[in-house]
Amino acid sequence: MALTSRQRELLDFIIQSVERESRMPSYREMAKGLGVAAVGTIQDHIKALVEQGYLEREEYGEKSVLKLASHRRSSAVTVPIIGEVAAGSLQDAFEVAMGTLPLSPEFLPSPLKGAQTSTPGEQLFALRVKGESMIDAGIHPKDFVIVQKGANVRTGDIVVASLHGEATVKEIEMPRKSGDALKLIPKNSRMKPILVEPNEDVRILGKVIAVHRYF
After folding, report:
1. Known catalytic residue: 133?
2. Domain of residue 125, CATH code
3. Cα dist. 27→100, 101, 213 in Å?
4. With 112 labelled, which of 92, 104, 123, 145 sits at a CA distance of 20 to 30 A?
5. Is residue 20 packed enough to be buried (19+ CB in 10 Å), middle (13-18) or exposed (0-12)?
6. How many structural domains is the chain composed of?
7. Segments of the chain with pLDDT less than 50
8. Do 121 and 78 contact (CB within 8 A), yes or no?
9. Which domain holds residue 64?
10. Of 133, 162, 187, 207, which one is the catalytic site residue?
């Protein structure tokens, strides 16, 4: 049975915590990380993750310790964080090396799951968001966008684009016919689209496939 979006979010939070702190987060930390008030909700999700083989319990007498299932411990994909990207005005995206982001394979598109576990970073990279032009799409300042390089892009996709050497994250609207402008559209009603004329230098650096947020 497939994981729900909340269960995937919790599993990813656990993997990130283990990678970062070398320990399992507490139920209260999990609840805070997912923004839920009831620890009981976390317990229900944990039960489902155990039943589906993502987590396991190791018994110590009358107590048990929760941990990542043995076949999952090394499965986290390490995505390089290569800088910051504007969700607002354009800016240089690649100024700051910021380490790596552990990512649960369950968040990857199916064609990437196997390949990315063995070749992390070849097809994916992460950027930290600055600005508020994508808040209506659920992309907020300090979020990390996970970007797939070389993905096929069509109207309605959220992309990282480089225009005149500067980068931005926006929804893309492809030209309808030859000679039409390409549009980079903010998801914030207070901001206007960026029109890219055919003679302008624009590159699509990749397609946003996921958003991650630390709490």
Report:
1. yes
2. 2.10.109.10
3. 25, 22, 18
4. 92
5. exposed
6. 2
7. 94-97, 113-121
8. yes
9. 5-68
10. 133
